[in-house]
From TrEMBL, chains A, B, C, D:
Its EC number is 1.13.11.2. Transmembrane segments: none annotated. Keywords: Dioxygenase, Oxidoreductase, Repeat. This is Metapyrocatechase/catechol 2,3-dioxygenase. It comes from Methylobacterium aquaticum. Residues 11-123, 153-274 form the VOC domain. PROSITE patterns: VOC.
Length: 337, 337, 337, 337
């Protein structure tokens, strides 16, 4: 190791999701996911999981369509923020400083090579629970809600990208993320990448966009404490009429125990188990999965569901709504009429 | 086996608990336990867990004190009911038929030798979930509530008795219950008995009343699906300010994974894991625990907490309220003020 | 209810499975399932789970093919046994008394209408653990093994039947089993039945044989304590090279949390969670699933895997071995080469 | 934040424990804990958990007494190692370079202010599983053992210190550890500290030595995946005759779900759940627990057991063996004789 690692990004901070059905999406995140509203501003409602230490981890913005508004990473220090801004500016992808956002200080925004909007900030507002939401144990941000599935904290997100490799190299060199796992096709093309800035084995992933369209979003993931809670979440989603796409099952890649559903605004939402698998090695050697290996399905043999490779947000052009490219599957998803 | 077993009792049906704090008790059972109100009549509110098939399993009755109103068992058939009534009448402990109760047909009431009121009935009202509580799977009584700790079904109850042996013999001979485990002191006195009419290893228990007072109640138990859910319940009780008496831990007797709390009306309420341990043998040989064995504490070594042997409902005479004989312990039970 | 229920069968006792690979099958049940060998006689090895109270629950018999040797139910009393024998003899399906079997007294054998061999017995040998396998808690049959997946007890089995209805009626009238759930096709044909003699929601199931061949076996099921243990079992099966057919997932029918694998002799083996769902009602109204409802897949939307409808033991004629009709699926089941 | 954080320590690498009963200790760690022997050298046997990426995480060394041989941290880079060595040398506590240890490169050894031996190294040997222990999923270090309690990875350790504050300041300034929680007595004296170099909420803790003796060890902790596995571990320890000191229960401090036992050599060994709680904030504000708060016991009200404050390794002078200061408790720990 000739060069020392860049350690300037502390962690994923929040995501902004656009929704064409703001009220239904809000009800999903509050009533079913068990999240707490912690602010409103303009067309946005801000939401948090009970273990998020910052004021919010999700900004839900009313819009004409679905998709990622922006993703935000917190820098490790003011100096770290300045260093990253300088590196991003050098790539020509910088968009400039963005101020006045709820809950955190100045953020520098930029495009990734696929056109998603990303920002980095340092100053942040720590969540102060109101009396009714104050926890019994003082080392916890907020009272456990005991409502719906009780998601614990924002875990990661997944974007689609036309050129996965270009995005990987950008996030590695300009931001200092480390690659932990990837999928490389027989042609040599990279079809998936999992990057981390923490001891979590990934903070976000980019997978191959099959339709040549830039800037689409694949899913947001909240963590639960145990696999048992994810199984119970499946029961609760079923009872609430939330379409389950696939799972619960265990991914071979990253060994994540997963469950994917669609929220009313059209986004794929994952709940996954938190943190049992950590990457502690500072010099972790990325795991490379081949095309053949990935054909074998998930860890215990489940075949990957076709919509997992086709559905993203916003929906494909010509599709009239987010449900369009998955309607065939959704129609048979519930059990009882 | 010269004589064939009596199989006339099908299962525990419901309990009536008296509460001096009806509104607070109701809020506990609905908001924290996750139960559903399914009727009101006179001074009583009727409550059910999501997997109870009958209309209710708990009748909460406003009163000047706490304690057991009555316990009710469902007979296996109309003929079984008649046979048991005849046998009870022969003991001289019969109280007579009781009609017009909400949710079930004529019940024959009687005293057990310790003076608790018990009834047996056959006809019952199956719960019909209203639209909003209809489950997704048709083989389930009610939608999973996703609120509080989500208790599944009434599991068992525990009374105190001055003469445990006399009560055991009464329930065995007049009702046909089978003894699965018991505690017998070195003096030969029986200090605890666990009886069943089902494949659950016990449907109720009687343990020694140390104060010579008849008719007191020890605890009611609702079942949860897994030990993980009981651990989570401990978190939820803590957040809700519900005093935890002891647990979660595993009893040596019956190997029940337990957690005991006090509801606002003063009753000890247990949540325990459902059904992993079944007694399938029709000729089960009762397990007899000695005084020395019981001194060793619970399964993994936890010492039995003193209030477990002293507190019952109603509280002891001279004590002004249900919290009195446990106040020392309760005062140090919570973590945060 | 004019007629009282027949309560003469206590529970499922054991199964005899034939295996063309006796040594490999034995290693699977001992090393991976975590069972204990408790006897050998002739071509058979006898095995038990740690919570089985009888000497064994599985008789593994070396054979030229796979399939069910026989299934055995324990009667509730000597008188109950005599009553059932008389009722079976009246059907003309009786085969006669069978004595000298390891671990239990005289058994009366008979054919079900599909030709499977079934027996009923009363006298049994309670397991006496040797010193090294003696448990710490005296209310447990045997020490927890801490090896492989540690199955707890025999739970149920599933046979295939050309005429499901005829078998249902036979087991109801001659043996006294109660129907808890069934699948009835639009044509009126019964395609599946779940019967119980206990508070478990089923002790065995028969589903439609699609190939017109009588006497085939679908699967044997052992119970584990929790869903978490079944997820871990999937990891352990994967590591041991045991082909996973489908799961873990939750059945809509009976809500069983399931995982199906193939043991080396060719039998489908299920591990499922024990006992959270009990049927306590003595007059349970059977749940009837329609063809359309069953097309919706499992509880959380998983499609039923084709081999689940085709593979049974012994394998179909013309197939050279048990793997034949599932080979396509098995070949892609593992992840790593 | 004027000064940027020191990020030179990557993680806890391994511990060396001395044992007066080397064969019994080895059997405990292999058979009960489910660890794998991965080397022998001199008087030491080297052991690993299945998810440890380095060759080993525990060095078990035969000795005349018990206690900590040394604790080892891995640096993030060669440059990071050099920087830390320089900083340690400046404190005057340096002992010098140590080479030729199994499994890793040159290590710089030093005393902490309490006299424990600690080392820091960078070069390490990644574990290469032999054929029989190769995992099915290539992103895993070793096959899941399915033996005993199957500990996942080394999680943290706890030393006793006469002057907790002096040790905290040393590890913060010379090594760059961050304080996440601490106990401060009413007198102002620090009685406990929890430090981390990762996103785990602590990598080690030091608590007050009540007997004025330097260099003693409190416990080593291995992580399991879920609370359910820790409950099962309690069953397995009970069956194996391993004395349980306290638990399972949840600490208020750090909210760790814990279970403490004594290994045959006398050390307290903890198993705890892995990683659900992460500290992601780069500027985490340490939680300070007061004397009064700590008197309230553990999270759900369990009182802290007296031996937890008295027993350390090596045992106190005058005690003839490690069991001495806990013998009263140990004698009543098991249930059945």
């Amino acid at each position: 190791m000739d060069q020392e690692p860049i350690l300037d990004v502390a962690h994923l901070g929040h995501l902004e999701l656009l929704t064409p059905k703001p009220e239904e999406s809000l009800r999903f995140f509050v009533d079913v996911m068990g999240m707490t509203e912690s602010g409103r501003q303009g067309d946005s409602v801000y939401l948090r999981a009970w273990d998020d230490y910052e004021r919010y981890s999700l900004q839900l913005t009313a819009s004409t369509t679905s998709g990622l508004g922006h993703a935000a990473f917190r820098a490790r220090s003011p100096q770290a923020l300045q260093r990253r801004v300088k590196a991003i500016e050098a790539t020509g992808l910088g968009l400039g400083w963005h101020e006045g956002e709820l809950g955190h200080g100045p953020a520098y925004r930029f495009h990734d090579p696929d056109g998603h909007v990303v920002e980095i900030y340092y100053e942040t507002e720590w969540y102060q629970a109101p009396e009714a939401l104050r926890p019994s144990l003082k080392n916890q941000a907020q009272r456990f809600p005991a409502r719906g599935i009780n998601v614990r904290r924002l875990d990661h997100f997944n974007c689609l990208a036309v050129d996965v490799k270009a995005n990987r190299e950008f996030f590695e060199s300009a931001l200092g993320f480390r690659l932990t796992e990837q999928i490389v096709l027989d042609s040599g093309e990279e079809a998936g990448m999992w990057l981390t800035a923490t001891n979590k084995s990934y903070d976000f992933a980019y997978t191959k966009e099959a339709h040549g369209i830039k800037g689409r979003f694949h899913h947001i993931t909240y963590a639960l404490d145990s696999r048992e809670e994810i199984l119970r979440a499946a029961d609760i989603f079923l009872e609430a009429g939330i379409p389950i796409e696939t799972g619960p099952h265990k991914h071979a890649v990253q060994q994540t125990f997963f469950l994917y559903v669609f929220e009313p605004g059209g986004h794929r939402v994952e709940v996954a188990n938190a943190g049992a698998r950590l990457v502690l090695a500072p010099d972790w050697k990325p795991i490379r999965w081949t095309e053949e290996e990935r054909k074998k399905g998930q860890a215990w043999g489940l075949k990957t569901i076709p919509t997992f490779h086709s559905h993203g947000t916003p929906p494909l052009p010509g599709h009239h709504g987010p449900d369009d490219d998955v309607q065939l599957d959704l129609s048979t998803n519930g059990i009882a009429s």
